[in-house]
Amino acid sequence: MLQQLLDTIARQPAVWDAFRSVAEFGFTADYKVIERELNPFGGDQQRRFLDFGCGTGQFARCFPADRYYGFDIAPHYVSHARRQTPHRLCVMNGTAVGFASDTFDAALIMGVFHHLDDATVIACVQELHRMLRHNGTILMLEDIPTQNPLNLAGRAMHWLDRGDNIRTVAHYQQLMEPYFSIQHSSTILSGICDLGVYVMTRNTAPTHA
Predict the structure, then answer these.
(1) Closest alpha carbon to 106 in 79, 80, 128
(2) H-type helices in 39-113, by residue range?
(3) pLDDT tens for each residue of 32-82
(4) Burial of 176 (0-12, 13-18, 19+ CB in 10 A)
(5) For the chain, percent of residues with pLDDT exceeding 90
(6) Average pLDDT, the chain
């Protein structure tokens, strides 16, 4: 019965958006990290940004509309996002993205990889390496184990979110570092949710090649 309820909520993007916004206190902490690490409205005004697994488009507003491209595998999420924002969004699979090579300067990965197994993550990372330019940056925010043992709401949120692949920094290094080097990592508390923050730069060629 509970599983059916979760599936119903997941099929209703507006409901899921509202639920996550309450749980993460309006995503205030996430927005601050994006501004600090990517500075989308500052710096080089030619930079192009990829929202890898954009979901309902919650973070599109953090980027200039004319230099933002987002995609998600779920058509109902993309349809919802298109009604909320003028930003460019499309339906694609992260293991075979339709954008040309060397297209983007930076990519945002927000809560995507903890839903995917290792083999799928590696396929996505290979696509990111192909699409990002030689000095490209990845900002990744992913769920990590709840840090405060008294944060029972955060533990429940992990269970409700149904992300079965919550990883350590070392595990992400193993998956990412043939293609990207982790420059620094940290943790934040986004409402009741503990998140790992990873800032990576693109390796010129995979280090195992």
Answers:
(1) 128
(2) 75-84
(3) 999 999 999 999 999 999 999 999 999 999 999 999 999 999 999 999 999
(4) buried
(5) 73
(6) 91
Contact 84, 58 (CB under 8 A): no
CATH number of 186's domain: 3.40.50.150
Range(s) of the domain holding residue 87: 2-202
Nearest-angstrom CA–CA distance, 134 and 82? 30
Residue 104 lies in a domain: yes
Rounded to whole angstroms, what are the CA distances from 154 to 28, 126, 200?
17, 32, 26
Task: Return the residue matching tokens 């509309």.
Answer: 65
Residue matched to tokens 């920094």: 169
Number of domains into which the chain is organized: 1
Is 208 within the bounds of a domain?
Answer: no
Kindly state whether residue 64 falls inside one of the protein's structural domains.
yes
Residue 113: inside a domain, yes or no?
A: yes
* Residue pLDDT, tens place only, 18-46: 888 999 999 999 999 999 999 999 999 99
